[in-house]
Specification:
145 residues; mainly beta; Lipocalin; nine-stranded antiparallel β-sheet; 50% strand; Cu-R_lipoprotein_NlpE; Lipoprotein
Length: 145
């Protein structure tokens, strides 16, 4: 009888251990990380758009959320300001022989998404609505703050 009881207890312990949920993976980064880019982007009907884009990553180093602040200037005076928050994602993109990170804010909303290519250690460049570089003499770069 003791043998059957011991076997039943051992079997139950193995069953319970096997059914426990998996522990979450260890965080790569114990705290969320934020990266901020800022600069002056061109504007068709104002002096420029003072832009600050902050990208947040979670403790596992995955993209989590963003904050975009834009100030539309008339001379040196802020005429209008807008803030936006949402999710973002990062993907690798091959251009020529180089691989770059491309950040897309609002990836789930094709009418509101924007893309930026990280082509330098300390800068990103805004892309057009098709995801291509903007052919212009104007500056579409935001610098790491």
């Amino acid at each position: 009888m003791k043998t059957y009881l011991a076997a039943a207890v051992l079997g139950s312990a193995i069953l319970v251990t096997g059914c426990q949920s998996q522990q979450p993976e260890e965080p790569i980064n114990p705290t969320a990380q934020k990266i901020t880019y800022s600069g002056m982007l061109p504007c068709a009907d104002c002096s420029g758009i003072r832009t600050t884009l902050t990208l947040y990553r979670d403790q596992y180093d995955n993209p989590s959320r963003f904050e975009l602040r834009e100030e539309y200037l008339s001379g040196s005076k802020v005429e209008l300001s807008a803030s936006e928050r949402g999710s973002w994602e990062s993907e690798k993109r091959l251009q020529g022989n180089m691989e770059y990170d491309v950040y897309t804010i609002n990836p789930d909303d094709p009418d509101a998404d924007r893309q930026y290519i990280k082509d330098a250690v300390n800068a990103i460049e805004q892309l057009d609505q098709s995801g291509n570089r903007i052919e212009s003499n104007m500056n579409y770069r935001l610098l790491l703050k």
